[in-house]
């Protein structure tokens, strides 16, 4: 019996040893496979306990990024900087308004460009009249606000019915050239204007403290540039922008304007002469006397009041000035604009 038992025990031990050997071989194969995966770029094998800890850590971090606990930014971190920035912007804005307010309303501590006693200033009188109307091709005015304005405008009549008046400097006029050739800034200037069909030369001269008072003269000469006959009309006008009265005198069948005269608070008496000896004998004459609210867009006003008349000899019909334009209320005409064509 003892031998039988010992044999059975020996078999059991052999069986347990075989099982232990198989388990060791299986564990070696598993460890070998995991090492192979790690060598091929996989993740390093970890014990089951470490994996569980890693999973729990990832879950905690994920909940933090999604808005839980530690990952959420406090509200006052956003609100306080925004309030601070808004407060600084408001302070800067109202500070600039306060600083600029007194600067705009406070007069500049420098001598005035137009003195209130300019009539007693001999130096100022030498620069009283000048070509101070830079927005027109040729314009003259004094350095006195709201006073007399003089200027010219012209247009060509080729029989097509179009009338493009040149007056204010416009890019659409497409002039070849215009500008001062000579100008001393005080008393003399010479300008050349090259249009498509003609060339104009204007000269300006002032003479202060003469027997006639502060005096200026202007000369306008024209030269045709086209071989075909083109009829060109030149308009000279005088406009009173301020207070005062204006009158005129005509001749030659009441069609030709000889002079414009009147008085203003600034100049007392004034007179504009239009000598006829410089105009061709067969020229067509017309004039305009009207009251206009503003000197702005005078060229459009002249266009709107033009009338068509028969021209001299074989010329086509001419757009001409209509003479006196009576007020709509039927009262007496007190013109502040007189023009001569």
Q: How much of the sequence is in beta strands?
A: 25-35%
Q: What is the overall pLDDT average?
A: 76
As a whole number of angstroms, the C-alpha radius of gyration is 50 Å
Record the strand order, biggest sheet. 1-2-3-8-16-12-15
How many beta-strand runs? 16
* H and E order: HHHHEEEEEEEEEEEEHEEEE
Oligomer: single chain
Give the helix tally: 5
Largest sheet: 7 strands, mixed
- Helix and strand content put the structural class at alpha+beta
Helix content: 25-40%
Unreliable spans are: 1-5, 60-69
Shape assignment: elongated
Alpha-carbon distance between the two ends: 158 Å
Structure description:
It is a single chain. The protein is of the alpha+beta class. 29% of the residues lie in helices and 30% in strands. It is built from 5 helices and 16 strands. The chain has helices at 2-39, 48-65, 76-105, 122-125, 298-305, and strands at 129-130, 139-142, 148-157, 177-183, 188-194, 198-210, 213-224, 231-240, 245-251, 256-264, 268-273, 287-290, 307-309, 318-320, 323-324, 337-340. It has a 7-stranded mixed sheet with strand order 1-2-3-8-16-12-15, with no helix packed on it. It has a 4-stranded antiparallel sheet with strand order 4-5-6-7, with no helix packed on it. Strand 5 (188-194) and strand 6 form a beta hairpin. The longest helix is centred in the N-terminal third of the chain and has 38 residues, at 2-39. It is elongated and about 150 Å long. The termini are far apart.
């Amino acid at each position: 019996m003892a031998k039988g038992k010992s044999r059975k025990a020996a078999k059991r031990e052999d069986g347990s040893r075989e099982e232990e050997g198989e388990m060791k071989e299986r564990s070696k194969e598993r460890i070998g496979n995991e090492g192979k995966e790690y060598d091929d770029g996989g993740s390093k094998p970890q014990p089951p306990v470490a994996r569980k800890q890693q999973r729990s850590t990832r879950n905690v971090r994920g909940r933090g990024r999604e808005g839980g606990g530690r990952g959420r930014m406090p509200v006052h971190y956003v609100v306080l900087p925004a309030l601070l920035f808004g407060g600084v912007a408001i302070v800067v804005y109202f500070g600039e308004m306060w600083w600029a307010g007194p600067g705009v309303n406070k007069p500049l501590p420098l001598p005035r460009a137009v003195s209130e006693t300019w009539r007693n200033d001999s130096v100022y009188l030498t620069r009283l009249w000048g070509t101070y109307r830079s927005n027109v091709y040729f314009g003259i005015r004094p350095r006195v606000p709201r006073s007399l304005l003089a200027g010219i405008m012209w247009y060509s009549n080729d029989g097509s019915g179009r009338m493009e008046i040149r007056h204010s400097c416009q890019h659409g006029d497409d002039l070849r050239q215009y500008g001062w050739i000579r100008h001393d800034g005080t008393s003399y200037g010479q300008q050349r204007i090259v249009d498509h069909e003609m060339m104009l030369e204007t000269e300006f001269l002032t003479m202060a403290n003469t027997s006639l008072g502060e005096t200026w003269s202007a000369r306008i000469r024209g030269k045709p540039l086209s071989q075909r006959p083109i009829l060109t009309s030149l308009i000279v006008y005088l406009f009173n922008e301020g207070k005062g009265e204006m009158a005129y005198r005509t001749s030659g069948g009441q069609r030709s304007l000889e002079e414009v005269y009147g008085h203003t608070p600034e100049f007392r008496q004034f007179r504009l002469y239009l000598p006829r000896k410089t105009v061709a004998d067969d020229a067509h004459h017309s004039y305009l006397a009207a009251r206009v609210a503003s000197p702005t867009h005078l060229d459009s006003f002249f266009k709107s009041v033009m009338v068509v008349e028969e021209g001299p000899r074989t010329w086509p019909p001419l757009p001409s000035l209509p003479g006196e334009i009576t007020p709509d209320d039927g009262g007496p005409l007190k013109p502040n604009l007189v023009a001569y064509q």
